[in-house]
Amino acid sequence: MFKLKNQFKKKIIFLFVFLGLLFINNKSIYAFPGIDLDVRRHQLEEELNNLLLELNNVFNNMSLDSSTRFNMMVAISNTIDTTNNQLSTINQQIIERDRCNQQRRNYQNKPNSPRRI
């Protein structure tokens, strides 16, 4: 029985480490062509909400011992930090995109714009 619990703990820790590495390696997916920044932001916000729910569920799960629960919470917390960083990067890119679009509209609306023929 003790051996099964130990194997279960190892498998859970391995799973969270694997998922964490998977999220870290996919952080540049928003830069691929064809992915809209607004869509990617929405995906990241949903992912963040799901991670927060998962963290809450692990925190309230009293069937796990404290060390396993703590390890799972740390893994989820690291994933949340990574997702927040990705979301921040996406928001910066959206702001820059909107700023460039506004400049382009301003140049087109000027009466003596050198770009206008």
From TrEMBL:
This is Sequence-variable mosaic (SVM) signal sequence domain-containing protein. Pfam families: SVM_signal. Residues 1-31 form the Sequence-variable mosaic (SVM) signal sequence domain. It comes from Aster yellows witches'-broom phytoplasma (strain AYWB). It comes from the Bacteria.
